[in-house]
User: Fold this.
Amino acid sequence: MEKFELYILGCGSALPTTRHFPTSQVVNVRDKLFMIDCGEGAQLQFRKARLKFSRLNHIFLSHLHGDHCFGLFGLISTLNLLGRTADLHIHSPRGLEDAFRSTLEFFNHQMTYKVFFHEFDTREPLLIYDDRSLTVTTIPLQHRMPCCGFMFAEKPSPNHIIRDMVDFYQVPVYELNRIKNGADFITPEGEVIPNTRLTRPADPPRRYAYCSDTIYLPELVEQLRGVDLLFHEATFTDDALSRAKETFHTTASQAATLARNADVKRLLIGHFSARYEDENVLYTEASDIFPNTVLAKEMLCLQV
Assistant:
């Protein structure tokens, strides 16, 4: 299977602790790197994970709270010091360019590369990135300011050619793309060779869903249904439910209930409140409802 990996750079929430960095993740799809949120220290964690800055061209910000974006300027500055020439694209809710543009111009007088801001509405799902192998769509969330998550979805791959059968039927090279895409082969004598005899199905496309800061939203079930991996914030345990509602966050049991109802394959929880010195209480609460739960931690790498 092609590479589809998730790296956790930080999984803490707004208040700093010595245990966790603020929120940041990197998705690696076929050696293209996509950063999700960029809390303080994200570039240091990027280095620790031995990821390559040159492969990072797109950054997606869920919302403009500091613990999700305060690491962005440092990262942009470092890329400039390294002499980067490739464009950098930053996708975010509205307001980021106004907040950052003057700071960039003040501190980076001679930028070696261009930064492009792509701002989007968070009220409905929107396709915000599309290439040959991947799409990224927003997931509308409800927080104290405009906020969304992101769905990283592989595109279906063509079928795999069965080389021995293609050679046996002497299929011309110019027919191979059609056959990979499902066409039958007709021999010079007029015999129809079924596609199923010449190919085997490609691996099913995979999906990773990232749900950042939000109150519990049962209506997300349909958009998340069946995803291979779901990250969902789990800032509090249920005994702090009133605090979760007040701050527009989710409890571990609520995240697990959403994962169960959406029939996802794996749940990853993070964005832990600083009040918990041992996050296993959050893991226990979630795994009691959805057993296939993973607790986020810095430098964790998961295969999607």
About this structure: Residues 253 and 286 are 5 Å apart (CA to CA). The chain has two domains: 4-157+203-303, 160-200. The first strand starts at residue 4 and ends at 10. The radius of gyration is 22 Å.
